[in-house]
């Protein structure tokens, strides 16, 4: 795991966009996309590179991490709608190349297992963009999720519903249930890119990165993956015990190594 402490959220976004751009320019790519606020700056950066520098997503497929249960695809807060409005609808993904879970599926288990098959058939995820919840969730794998879990239905914690209430008119409108890729599913992506910014994430980042690998902190599952880049700003890094070590190592890293 590589922990990279960057000055501001804007530098976090540029660094993440650099990694994604390199991969996308290399050829056909499968991206795993997170929603929520944290990756928005990265998506804006990618949209700008598409418009200014000809970065094309026409050879890229995308799979969303999760979806609210009970929101129709057309609902403005469904993750289908959000990702289209914030990113994929503003660049040149081909029609049908952005995939998400159907939160209205009658049979959630069948939906989940079809989604897993679909990811496999696409060749697996090259780069998975991740945010982290204040309770340490990854995707919507809430505390005590199995570190080997697969895509399935989960119940959101009160904390996550409170955190996400800002996207709805009232916390009671935040769905109780979600479909989410499991931690085992996420760990199959070839490169995991965790983005975290702001003080509110500092405790969760420290637990995930420096704490024990434990289901109480689902993001600690990252420690089991061979290729993880954790991009954090100073505020999100503020509770890391070994900040100086991470900064020193990154500062002396040979440029050719990349992330
Ligand atoms: C969203 C997702 C969640 C968010 C997390 C952080 O698709 O999977 O794990 O990444 O809740 O959300 P923000 O970035 O809004 O703080």
Summarize the structure.
With 259 residues, this protein is of the alpha/beta class. It has helices at 9-26, 40-53, 79-86, 108-121, 158-164, 183-186, 202-210, 243-251; strands at 2-6, 29-33, 60-64, 66-68, 98-99, 127-130, 152-155, 177-180, 191-196, 228-233. The structure holds fructose -6-phosphate.
Structural description of this entry:
The protein has 259 residues and is an alpha/beta fold. The protein has one domain: 3-Layer(aba) Sandwich (Rossmann fold). Helix content is 32%, strand content 17%. The strands form two sheets. The chain has a seven-stranded parallel beta sheet, sandwiched between helices. It has a three-stranded antiparallel beta sheet with strand order 4-8-7. Strand 2, helix 2 and strand 3 form a beta-alpha-beta unit. The protein is globular, with a radius of gyration of 17 Å. The structure holds fructose -6-phosphate. Fructose -6-phosphate binds next to loops.
Keywords:
single chain, 259 residues, alpha/beta, Rossmann fold, 7-stranded parallel β-sheet, 3-stranded antiparallel β-sheet, 8 helices, 17% strand, globular, binds fructose -6-phosphate
């Amino acid at each position: 795991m590589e922990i990279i402490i960057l000055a501001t959220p804007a530098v976090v976004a540029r660094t993440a966009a650099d990694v994604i751009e390199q991969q996308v320019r290399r050829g056909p790519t499968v991206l795993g996309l997170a929603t929520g606020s944290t990756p928005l700056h990265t998506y804006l950066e990618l949209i700008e590179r598409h418009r200014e520098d000809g970065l094309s997503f026409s050879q890229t497929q995308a799979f969303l991490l999760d979806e609210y249960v009970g929101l129709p695809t057309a609902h403005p807060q469904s993750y289908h709608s959000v990702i289209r409005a914030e990113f994929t609808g503003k660049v040149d993904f081909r029609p049908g190349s952005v995939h998400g879970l159907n939160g209205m599926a009658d049979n959630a288990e069948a939906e989940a297992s079809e989604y897993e098959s679909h990811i496999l058939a696409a060749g697996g995820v090259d780069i998975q963009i991740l945010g982290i919840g204040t309770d340490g969730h990854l995707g919507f794998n809430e505390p005590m999720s199995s570190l080997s879990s697969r895509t399935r239905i989960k119940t959101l914690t009160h904390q996550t519903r409170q955190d996400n209430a800002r996207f709805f008119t009232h916390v009671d409108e935040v769905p109780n249930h979600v479909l989410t890729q499991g931690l085992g599913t996420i760990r199959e992506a070839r490169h995991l890119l965790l983005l975290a910014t702001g003080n509110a994430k500092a405790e969760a980042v420290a637990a995930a990165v420096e704490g024990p690998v434990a289901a109480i902190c689902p993001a600690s599952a990252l420690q089991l993956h061979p290729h993880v880049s954790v991009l954090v700003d100073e505020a999100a890094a503020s509770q890391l015990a070994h900040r100086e070590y991470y900064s020193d190592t990154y500062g002396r890293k040979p440029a050719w190594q990349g992330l």
